[in-house]
Amino acid sequence: MEHEEAAAHGPLDQFTIDRLIPIHIGGIDASFTNAALFMLISVALVTWFLMAATRGGSLVPGRLQSLAEAAYGLVASALRDNVGPEGKKYFPFVFSLFMFILFANFIGLIPVPGSFTVTSHIIVTFALAFFIFVMVTLIGLARHKLHFFSLFLPAGVPIYLAPLLVPIEIIGYLTRPISLSVRLAANMLAGHTMLEVFAGFVIALGIFGFAPFLFVIAIYGLEVIVAFLQAYVFAVLTCLYLSDAINLHKH
Amino acid sequence: MPQMDFTTYAPQLVWLVISFVLLYLLMARMALPRIERILTTRDNRISGDLNEAAEFGRKAEAAQKAFDKVTSETRARAQKLAAEARERANAEQSARTAKLDAELAEQSKKADAGIAAARQKAMASLRDVAIDVAQAAAERVTGTSISKDAAAKAIDAEIKGAKS
């Protein structure tokens, strides 16, 4: 079936998972897939970029070092503004999250055969979002014990509105991992699919292909922005959830 | 749609955990401490430089103050010295003037005394002359000579009358 899809060359083929090295450990399919390869590429590139950029560690930063410091500053200020000084503990996590998603998004945009976008798979983004959800809930419970549930009844709300508001707040809280993961995966999926569809038109229209070609260039620029923005939004929302767990609405 | 192929979930999750944990460790242990060190070094350097500049500013201000103090002290001392010198000159001047005045007064007193003595002497000789004249005049007018004593008595009486 995979081969049939590949032969058809649909715009969704770019998301196909290929088992490059089949691995099975205790009945679990741990095969090394192209997704795994691109995850490791992202990790390697993030690390290489940061280490290479900071090798000199010069007082007056060069181009690469400025970029690395800007990434650091972006996440640090998002965490500081949303969570406050308590958030410093979670900085390595949020920074890793941001850089992982950012590089996965960017790498997926490099138009080479076999290119793959890790973050276009809902299971990957959902796993990240669900982990954040569980982590944030545990942090909140550990810090505030039962008082944590006051999160579901915002302060200053008349008590007779509680039967209405509390369920809404609880549903809103529980759907956080879904909205967080779907936002990222859907953006990646839609952008890449659209690029592929219009790139297909370029060939199909022959001489008139320049029109969709120009469109593809424009969309590509947009997708670069979206790739950055979605990584940033993911990181900022993680900060906001952390803030809720740590500060319980009051800040 | 490949995203909905549940059989790919397990390998993706396994490798996501592996790569993300790896990335987290690399960030937390290597990359972030390095960036942090760079930023702290820079912040320290900047604040150190600012402090140093402030220190230099303070020193310059203190030096200026000391300079001003020395200048004003010197000026005050110079004024004091000048005033003293002026006072001393004035005192000397007035002393000399006083001495000169005294000398002059002495001299004029001496001169007055001389004049008084001369006048007395002249007056005394005037009496003798008057007596002689009176004796001669009486002889010429009356043809009789009067004694010198009588003439002297008459003259003295006249002088006495003129004086009173």
Topology, please?
The complex is a heterodimer of chains A (251) and B (164).
Chain A: H1 2-8, E1 19-21, E2 24-25, E3 28-29, E4 32-33, H2 34-53, H3 63-82, H4 91-109, H5 122-144, H6 162-174, H7 176-204, H8 210-247
Antiparallel strand pairs in A: 1-4, 2-3
Helix pairs in contact in A: 2-3, 2-4, 3-4, 3-8, 4-8, 5-7, 5-8, 7-8
Chain B: H1 9-142, H2 148-163
Helix pairs in contact in B: 1-2
Indicate the overall shape of chain A.
globular
* Mean pLDDT figure of chain B: 90
What value does the average pLDDT of chain A take?
89
Shape of chain B: rod-shaped
The structural class of chain A is: mainly alpha
Per DSSP, the total helix count of chain B is 2
Q: Order of helices and strands of chain B, N to C? A: HH
Helical content of chain B, roughly?
over 70%
Structure description:
The complex is a heterodimer of chains A (251) and B (164). With 251 residues, chain A is mostly helical. Chain A has one domain (2-247). Chain A contains eight helices and four strands. In chain A, strands 1-4 form a two-stranded antiparallel ribbon. Chain A has a two-stranded antiparallel ribbon with strand order 2-3. In chain A, a hairpin with a 2-residue loop joins strand 2 (24-25) and strand 3 (28-29). In chain A, 34% of the residues are buried. By secondary structure, chain B is mainly α. The longest helix of chain B has 134 residues, at 9-142. The mean pLDDT of chain B is 90. Chain B contains two helices and no strands. The N and C termini of chain B lie far apart (165 Å). The A-B interface holds A 12-13, 15-17, 19, 23, 28-33, 35-36, 39-40, 42-43, 46-47, 50-51, 54, 57, 59, 61, 65, 68-69, 72, 91-93, 95-96, 99-100, 118, 120-124, 127-128, 185, 189 and B 1-3, 5, 7-16, 18-20, 22-24, 26-28, 30-32, 34-39, 41-42, 45.
